[in-house]
């Protein structure tokens, strides 16, 4: 079956530090890959996505590249801000008509000033 | 902007009570989902619905049922609440086609405490 494994947290960084959150997946076929973010007290919102191999998703300074050869979709940001403190979820959709997502367990990021 | 609303942000119920969690979306989406979120476990799919009156079990349907009588509304029902159903419940929706088809839009969540 499908599964997503992401870096366990929590991750604590100082402002302007470089961020990497690792995500690897197991899936049949050619899944689409996503990063969702959950700010404190809120629901999840889509941060970025990539739908095929070598695609790069980007948004708000975050980037992730769909690597089929390593089955990975690592999230990166060059310089984090306090406002980036949140829980980050990697997810995949392996297709079909129901658009179900399989999520990783989430990584809590805290950025200190 | 898509808006997904959930009837309560916080709810406290007693063991054995019947609990209704309501979710409403305003973008005419065909697909709707209920997840529960627990620390260290991430999001797990309880049920989803791809059309009015249509439903499918997710990964952890035991102890839950759902109702979708109107396209915009998807209800999660705990027939007899138990303490192990204390959790954060998240509703989401997505259209059946178009460029946003794979993007799930989430509500703010309902934090349920069962005593």
Give me some keywords for this one.
heterodimer, A: 113 residues, mainly beta, 6-stranded mixed beta sheet, 12 strands, B: 115 residues, 7-stranded mixed beta sheet, 0% helix
Structure, explained:
Chain A is an all-beta fold and 113 residues long. Helices cover 0% and strands 50% of the residues of chain A. Chain A has strands at 3-6, 11-14, 19-21, 23-26, 32-38, 44-50, 56-59, 62-65, 75-77, 86-93, 102-103, 107-112. In chain A, the strands form three sheets. In chain A, strands 2, 5, 6, 10, 11 and 12 form a six-stranded mixed sheet that branches. A four-stranded antiparallel sheet of chain A has the order 3-9-8-7, with no helix packed on it. In chain A, a hairpin with a 5-residue loop joins strand 5 and strand 6. Chain A is globular. The termini of chain A are far apart. The mean pLDDT of chain A is 92. Chain B is mostly beta strands and 115 residues long. Helix content of chain B is 0%, strand content 56%. Chain B is globular. The model of chain B has no long low-confidence stretch (mean pLDDT 92). The interface between A and B is medium-sized, with 22 and 25 residues.
In short:
The complex is a heterodimer of chains A (113) and B (115). Chain A has 113 residues and is mostly beta strands. Helix content of chain A is 0%, strand content 50%.
DSSP strand content of chain A: over 45%
Radius of gyration of chain A, CA atoms, in whole angstroms: 14 Å
Order of helices and strands of chain A: EEEEEEEEEEEE
Rg of Cα set of chain B: 13 Å
Overall geometry of chain A comes to globular
Which structural class fits the helix and strand makeup of chain B? Answer: mainly beta
List low-confidence stretches of chain A.
none
Helical residue percent band of chain A: under 10%
How much helix is in the residues of chain B? under 10%
List the helices and strands and how they pair.
The complex is a heterodimer of chains A (113) and B (115).
Chain A: E1 3-6, E2 11-14, E3 19-21, E4 23-26, E5 32-38, E6 44-50, E7 56-59, E8 62-65, E9 75-77, E10 86-93, E11 102-103, E12 107-112
Parallel strand pairs in A: 2-12
Antiparallel strand pairs in A: 1-4, 3-9, 5-6, 5-10, 7-8, 8-9, 10-11, 10-12
Chain B: E1 4-6, E2 10-13, E3 19-25, E4 31-38, E5 42-51, E6 54-57, E7 64-70, E8 73-78, E9 87-94, E10 105-106, E11 110-114
Parallel strand pairs in B: 2-11
Antiparallel strand pairs in B: 1-3, 3-8, 4-5, 4-9, 5-6, 7-8, 9-10, 9-11
